[in-house]
Amino acid sequence: MYCGFGHADSGFVPIFIYAIFGSSRQISIGPAALTSLLVSNVLGKIVDSSDALYTELAIVLTLMVGILECIMGLLRLGWLIRFISHSVISGFTTASAIVIGLSQAKYFLGYEIDRSSEIVPIIKSIISGADKFSWPPFVMGSIILAILQTMKHLGKSRKHLKFLRAMGPLTAVILGTSSAKIYHPSSITLVGDIPQGLPSFSIPKCFKHAKSLIPTTLVITGVAILESVGIAKALAAKNGYELDSNQELFGLGAANVLGSFFSAYPTTGSFSRSAVNHENGAKTGLAGVITGIVMCCALLFLTPVFEYIPLCALSAIVISAVISLVDYEEAIFLWPVSKKDFLLWTITAITTLFFGIEIGVLIGVGFSLAFVIHESANPHIAVLGRLPGTTVYRNIQQYPEAYTYNGIVIVRIDSPIYFANTSYIKDRLREYEIVVDKLTRRGPQVGRIYFVVLEMSPVTYIDTSAVQALKELHHEYKSRHIQIAISNPNRNVLLMLSKSGLVELIGKEWYFVRVHDAVQVCLQHVESIKEDHMASGSDSSPEETESSFFKSLLKQRGEDSSVAQLESGTNNKPSDLKHSDPLSEPLLFQKS
């Protein structure tokens, strides 16, 4: 740890508070290396760590962080955590496990190494201090680590030895303490003196510096949320339950607010202790309560015993726990399945390793958001064709046997339509008008597209920008004698189209319940175009024939349909179109 005060207080009082208000079943609340590093780095620039003001500022900082977390939880801002994808969390936990594991190496090697959340300074420090290497702590730590890993493996692989997994850490402590008591090795660092007694109640002071602590409060809160909730989400996923992010935020905030009245500094979910909790089979928040009770008893009665615990034994417990969090298997799984998610995993892991935990997560989340925005602004759009022998229309790329009709293009938009993607959708629709796909086509032979059927059942929402884009598209199509038909919009979308006047503009008779209904009507009109053109012969140009035809279409519009009638499908077939067989194809003429 990096702050000399309040460790026992931070590890004792907030545990009980979080057990009441928090939602994670495995996370362990208390002093964390990263938070301690941030506190010491920031407060060290304001006042010397030996000054009493240092402690007071840290306690005030705890209160401010807790208040901000509580506010975020009460305002239900936990949804922000949804943008932390599983790939980001996996990459973050993998890199963090490596950094935390290496930071524990000093207890194995027998000399101090630089404290950092980045891997390069830690490795440089390990290499530069190699001449101070000490064998006794390395041997003891390695033996205890090997015992822990063996007990863990046996506990996982053999059901009747499952208890060994939970007994591992206790065995490590007993072995280490016994060795220290018997042999008294001078080169092995022990825990040392721990102040006896419970923390006393006191009100935070020194609020005159609160303004200067606001930026630090925001940073620590952000890191606490990203780290704690990230850890909690990862452990929740591993244990098969859903995490309530809002409750998690409020639980962390309450633990910090009430902890500040007992001289605690900013506490968060401890990566290493949470990993130990998970590894030892913690299934409910009761694990935290038991931990708090044990700490209470330890602070009152057992501090003289803990004085002889070797730090290398505790380090072995932490390293054993974080080894299982190195999720390289996820990267192997993602590579063939999703290159995008693999990229997210890799970016998060590398940036976390080389630029620190908080920066790594922020960059990972940033890339996640960039991918989300890109997908939303460039939605999937499919050209549909009819499956033979059915009235079902599916993506022609997914179902090559599906066929299309001459003069008609059927397009399905697989996302909400809003300001960010209207331009992309319009561009794609123009492409479908111009580019004649080399597909199996049926129906009357015509030279170009006359109808664009928009299948809108996947469209859950449209905004005014989308409405305006559809109006512009309608006018653009109208100038080229192309008619839009709308198929199966949901109620909210239909209401928006009606209120905006788009229903009247396009024509109520061009709204359909099914794609098949729209296609049958369009086929009839395509046949009429074909017949009119053939009847006119050379006396009229194709443009004049098309123009007169579309004028006749405008005259056919009914003005007595409401939105409810549109939804019921009572208004979307001309009276002269009859379907005796839903699988039949009226007005289809196969050309030999």
From TrEMBL:
Q: Which of UniProt's keywords are assigned here?
A: Membrane, Sulfate transport, Symport, Transmembrane, Transmembrane helix, Transport
One GO term in the molecular function aspect is:
symporter activity
Q: Name one GO cellular component term.
A: membrane
Pfam families linked to this entry: STAS, Sulfate_transp
Major subcellular site: membrane
All residue ranges annotated as the STAS domain in the record: 398-522
Residue ranges of the region described as Disordered: 533-592
Which SUPFAM superfamilies does the protein's record reference? SpoIIaa-like
**Compartments, record wording:** Membrane
- Signal found in the keyword field: no
Q: Which organism is it from?
A: Gossypium tomentosum
Report whether Cell membrane shows up as a keyword of the record.
Answer: no
Recorded superkingdom: Eukaryota
Protein name listed in UniProt? STAS domain-containing protein
